[in-house]
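Hello forum,

I keep getting stuck at the same step: I have a sequence, I want structure tokens, and every attempt I make locally crashes halfway through. Rather than fight my setup again tonight, could one of you with a working pipeline run this one for me? It's a single chain of 120 residues.
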Amino acid sequence: MRETKSTNPEIIQLIQFLKKQSKAKDAGIWLSVAENLARPSRQRVAVNLSKINRYTKKNATIVVPGKVLASGTLDHAVTVAAFGASDKAKEKMAAVKAKYLSIPELIEKNPQGSNVIIIR
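Reply #2:
Ran it on my machine without issues. Output:
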């Protein structure tokens, strides 16, 4: 059986960037995120705000190797880095003063990935 690969150039570029940063900074978290993003689109992660709310505490930093969706509520401020987020999810995060970043922006702020939680 042939292995499927992503054809989205943004995802391909992000996966390559994550792998380079993982080796350069000796941070395995970025390799794990790259492997999750490399999955077929049917298996890619979509996380609701309710799950983020359930598994995080105030001021936590999380990375979602996929998309953040708006189902549920968020009642505390967190920093969320993801490949994408729905417009409604961004609005709900802004309402509680949560920060939304792209994954490369998070790597720029925290190259080692210390105290970053992966939510799948």
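The mean pLDDT is 92. If your local run keeps crashing, start a new thread with the error log.
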